[in-house]
Amino acid sequence: MSNDRQTPSREALIESIYQTFEDFALPFSATNHPGCCECDGYAEELAGVQRQDLTMLHIGTVCWGPIPFLTPAAMAYYFPRLAEFAILNAENKEGDPFRFQFLGALRDAKAKQFTLFEGKHRLAVLEVLTFLEKERTLASDDDDTGLDTLDSVVTSWKNTLNSES
Ligand SMILES: [Zn+2]
What pLDDT shows up at residue 22? Predict the structure, then answer.
């Protein structure tokens, strides 16, 4: 399985996602929710953390983690790293597939968090989702739990892409 993780197509995809998002700079603060201890804590933990240095310790779990609270700038900055974890099928802090957390974060393409995503970024999101779709069919294991989510996420992103062009 570890060899499979190094196939060129995965690496090429990851590389292209980083390139597409390269113009986004490390934001001064990853959250913007003044007076909220939780968000302040996340901002503190992410202060100065470059996208390639983001780890599962920062990302946490479905129940505890900064992703839902990231500002649009922080989401745009960290997106390539999140996509990389999803593409590599990394496990989150609890040993669950990060992919589910990733899909949950992407559920609504029109969410405020994605307001900085332009056409090319949205296309890149769709590339990642298409990759996850292909892998799902190949996997044929017990991953049905993600089926509905993945389909509805894909639809959401396709719709915003169509409505923008
Ligand atoms: Zn908060």
Answer: 98
